[in-house]
Design brief:
The complex is a heterodimer of chains A (653) and B (143). Chain A is of the alpha/beta class and 653 residues long. Chain A is built from 18 helices and 32 strands. Chain A has five domains: 123 residues, Rossmann fold, CATH 3.40.50; 144 residues, FAD/NAD(P)-binding domain (3-Layer(bba) Sandwich), CATH 3.50.50.60; 82 residues, Alpha-Beta Plaits, CATH 3.30.70.20; 164 residues, FAD/NAD(P)-binding domain (3-Layer(bba) Sandwich); 60 residues, Alpha-Beta Plaits. A five-stranded parallel β-sheet of chain A has the order 10-7-6-16-27. Chain A has a five-stranded parallel β-sheet with strand order 18-25-19-20-21. Chain A has a four-stranded parallel β-sheet with strand order 2-1-3-4, sandwiched between helices. In chain A, strand 3, helix 3 and strand 4 form a beta-alpha-beta unit. Chain B is of the alpha/beta class. Chain B has one domain. Helices cover 39% and strands 16% of the residues of chain B. Chain B has five helices and four strands, in the order βαβαβαβαα. Chain B has a four-stranded parallel β-sheet with strand order 2-1-3-4, with helices on both faces. In chain B, helix 1 packs across helix 4. The chains are: A alpha/beta (653), B alpha/beta (143). Chains A and B meet through helix 3, helix 4, helix 5, helix 14 and helix 17 of A and helix 1, strand 2, helix 2 and helix 3 of B.
């Protein structure tokens, strides 16, 4: 066996704190190592050529690249050695950058650690076996989770690309947060006017199958072949009959139902269509408020409905769809007002959130676009905006910036002046964050052309005084205390992960960060991929972002799906479990523990029962290998021998 | 082990590819400084860690072993880490019967975004092992 070791300097990233030349010299002494060298940038084209040439020149049959994390470049170097004629699994990487040079201060200790880590990789690679992938068919349908602007964009782009799309939306209508907005920054064009046509396209697209008011129940399978169970929640209205006439909503006597679409700015009816442009424009009953459900008698809507669509007996329904890829665009949530006792904690009716104010501004909102105080329906003359309500506040566990609040506050200040010309807006801010195209100009317009008074400082307290609210804050530029008597206070509440984001992630087997936002494969270079192949991200589910960024990601995710589906067959990962039928005793403990149901019973000719792995279903976790009492089932590329070789390389008493 | 510096002890870490190995990468990218004793072995899942690997390491020269996987319910392979938890908890209780202080073995959950937590874990565990001293001075086995 002739192992070649290539140690990367990574510029000064590695060579700065690891003596790479000494490491190469040490490695040359290791039995089995035929060649060891150090190189400036191994991942560069000349660097890869060096590997290819060395394989030919030195007749190498196993390669160790000591460089960055294998999560970064394992695939790169697998391709390199494959081009030089070696099986791609004859490669091991030693992570001497992320795990050594970047985290250790002492060059001597780092160098020793690097040498040992490379020796472990050499020990492993000498145990490696050639593996060959097989190909399998893919189902070229895509599931899009979330019908906000990001999800709709992904669905439309996939549909236009010729793919069949299943779009699942939790609420009764697509549109998401954007459908609730009045205008959009920095152009002040009407939100629903630009979103509405997209929503109609989604409804009318012959490739898109929309499940509104539905949730993901369960997901099974792997890239190319997922089986998705979708829970169609009971609407108590037969949507095949409902025409969206709205007569039921008019006559419904339960007038005090919570309006989820309007974030509770005003109550709605127990049977309702969330907003005039809703897609699908169908009614649904909220059983928490409907008298038929709470008191057991009413039935007004059933009597009035001209098509007889009302069905109080309706149950949730589970449907199954088969898809090959998934785009997750499940959006974001907002922090509760009760997290801010100093701002009234939701007890003062005239302290509202930014999205509630948006509904007041909106012509299709509960006040038909008239800005009024929720308490007494009078027009406010002094409006105070509080930015960073929760954002960038470690004490609330939200150290991050919510991305778009600075911009929507500027927009709302401008719109306030438009609606009420004799009004005055105050904006309490920590920093104005407006890094987009035309964004900074926009925040300046709010101040210079619309006279919004920007006060740099935080608000410490809001308390009621007569009909007014006193906002107490600091002006850190003047170094003084500020008190504003306001008629209405708008809090730019922090963006959080969507409710249920973690549960959805668990169904998808994708990871989420401490805050519940989904983790992308690489923060810069793979922003819409996840570490689970076949699952892509779009929009604010990955982190707070504004409309242009969400739309961009929606299209990006669609492009990734289209690229994935451009082939008819996918190559399977050959690093799956394999059974040695001679040593297997047929206890089938592996079958019990396999999380994927990838192990079957198999009867050999002599009647002996053994375990057998369904290769395409095996995901390669190796739980079976640790379970097997006789070492008969081994996860390829991570066999007992391979891992013990690594242990033995560093633990020799 | 001639190559180990005078102050270093031998610590072996088994890290699952999807969460903890990524977390250690994140710590690296963020330049979160750590003690240099730890040597990392990448496994696909914490459920792949056979308790015998840990025992083998401890009997053959390691002074401490750390296993880290995905947080419960956030496993890339659904529930590999639950199997890991059962096996490793059992192992922890068995170690004293082998004459090994169970503080020499630690298992934990660290996600790919928790670079800082990884730094803290490595620092704390290394400190703990240094407090216990080398395993193979023979003292522990005689007790």
């Amino acid at each position: 066996m002739r192992v070649g070791v290539f140690i990367c300097h990574c510029g000064s990233n590695i060579a700065g704190t690891v003596d790479v030349a000494r490491a190469a010299a040490e490695l040359r002494k290791v039995p089995g190592v035929a060649f060891a060298t150090n190189y400036m940038y191994t991942c560069s084209e000349p660097g890869q050529d060096e590997i290819k040439q060395a394989i030919k020149r030195e007749n190498l049959d196993r390669i160790v690249v000591a460089a960055c994390s294998p999560r970064m470049h394992e695939l790169t170097f697998r391709r390199t050695i494959e081009k030089a004629g070696l099986n791609r699994y004859f490669l091991e990487m030693a992570n001497i950058r992320e795990h050594i040079s970047w985290v250790g201060l002492d060059k001597e200790a780092n160098t020793i650690k690097a040498i040992e880590t490379i020796k472990m990789a050499v020990a492993k690679v000498m145990q490696n076996k050639p593996l060959y992938s097989s190909s399998f068919k893919i189902n070229k349908r895509v599931l899009v989770i979330g019908g906000g602007v990001a999800g709709m964009q992904a669905a439309l782009d996939c549909g236009d690309g010729g793919l069949e799309v299943v779009l699942v939306e939790k609420s009764p209508s697509v549109g998401g947060m954007m459908a609730r907005l009045d205008k959009t920054f920095p152009t002040i064009d009407c939100s629903i006017c630009i979103l509405g046509p997209k929503m109609v396209d989604v409804a009318q697209h012959d490739k898109i199958k929309l499940y509104a008011y539905s949730e993901i129940e369960d997901i099974k399978g792997y890239v190319g072949n997922y089986e998705v169970k979708i829970r169609k929640k009971a609407t108590y209205v037969d949507w095949t009959k409902c025409t969206g006439c709205g007569l039921c909503m008019e006559k419904c006597p339960s007038k005090n139902s919570y309006d989820y679409f309007n974030f509770g700015v005003a109550p709605t009816k127990a049977i309702n269509i969330p907003f005039p442009q809703a897609i699908p424009k169908k009614a649904k009953i909220d059983p928490d408020f409907c008298r038929q459900f709470t008191k057991g008698k009413c039935g007004v809507c059933a009597k009035i409905c001209p098509t007889g669509a009302i069905n109080y007996e309706m149950q949730d329904e589970i449907v199954t769809e088969e898809v090959g890829a998934i785009v997750v665009a499940s959006g974001y949530g907002l922090i509760d007002m009760d997290k801010f006792p100093e701002y009234g904690g939701g007890r003062y009716p005239d302290v509202i959130t930014g999205i509630q104010y948006e509904r007041l501004l909106n012509a299709s909102g509960p006040t038909e676009g008239h800005i009024v105080r929720p308490s007494d329906h009078t027009e406010p003359k002094t409006v105070v905006f509080v930015s960073c309500a929760g954002s960038r506040d470690k004490s609330l566990g939200i150290p991050y910036c919510s991305n778009f609040c600075c911009m929507y506050i500027a927009k709302q200040a401008i719109l306030t002046k438009d609606h009420i010309p004799d009004s005055q807006s105050y904006v309490f801010y920590m920093d104005i964050r407006s890094p987009g195209k035309g964004y900074d100009e926009f925040t300046r317009r709010a101040q210079e052309d619309y006279g919004a008074k920007y006060v740099r400082g935080r608000v410490s307290r809001i308390y009621p005084k007569g009909k007014k609210l006193v906002v107490v804050g600091a002006d850190t530029l003047l170094g003084t205390q500020v008190e504003v008597e306001a008629d209405l206070v708008v809090l730019a509440t922090a963006v959080t992960a969507a409710p249920g984001a973690a549960q959805l992630a668990e169904k998808l087997h994708i990871s989420y960060d401490t805050f519940g936002f989904y983790v992308e494969s690489h923060p810069k270079l793979r922003p819409v991929e996840t570490n689970t192949s076949g699952v892509f991200l779009a929009g604010a589910a990955q982190g707070p972002k504004d409309i242009p960024a969400s739309v961009g990601q929606g299209s990006a995710a669609a492009a990734k799906v289209l690229a994935l589906f451009s082939k008819d067959m996918l190559e399977s990962d050959p690093a799956v479990a394999k059974v040695n039928e001679n040593t297997c005793v047929g206890c089938l403990k592996c079958k019990l523990t396999c999380p994927f149901g990838a192990i079957q019973e198999k009867e050999l000719r002599g009647g002996k029962i053994v375990a057998s792995v369904i290769e395409t279903v095996c995901a390669g976790c190796g739980v079976c290998t640790s379970t097997c009492p006789c070492g008969a089932i081994q996860l390829s590329h991570f066999t007992d021998n391979q891992l013990l070789a690594e242990v033995n390389a560093i633990c020799q008493k | 082990m001639s190559e180990v510096g005078p102050k270093e002890l031998r610590i072996v870490g088994f890290l699952c590819n999807w969460c903890s190995y990524g977390g250690a990468d994140t710590a690296g990218v963020s330049r979160f400084k750590q003690p240099t004793d730890l040597r990392i072995i990448r496994v696909p899942c914490s459920g792949r860690v056979d308790p015998l690997f840990v025992v083998k390491a401890l009997l053959n020269g390691a002074d401490g072993v750390l296993v880290s996987g995905c947080h419960p319910r956030d496993c890339h392979y659904s529930d590999g880490n639950f199997y890991a938890r059962r096996r490793l908890e059992m192992l922890k209780r068995l170690l004293p019967f082998l004459g090994i202080d169970d503080k020499r073995f630690h298992y934990t959950w660290i996600s790919a975004s928790e670079g800082q937590r990884w730094q803290q874990t490595v620092t704390d565990f290394t400190k703990q092992i240094h407090k216990l001293g080398p395993l193979h001075s023979g003292k522990e086995a005689q007790q």
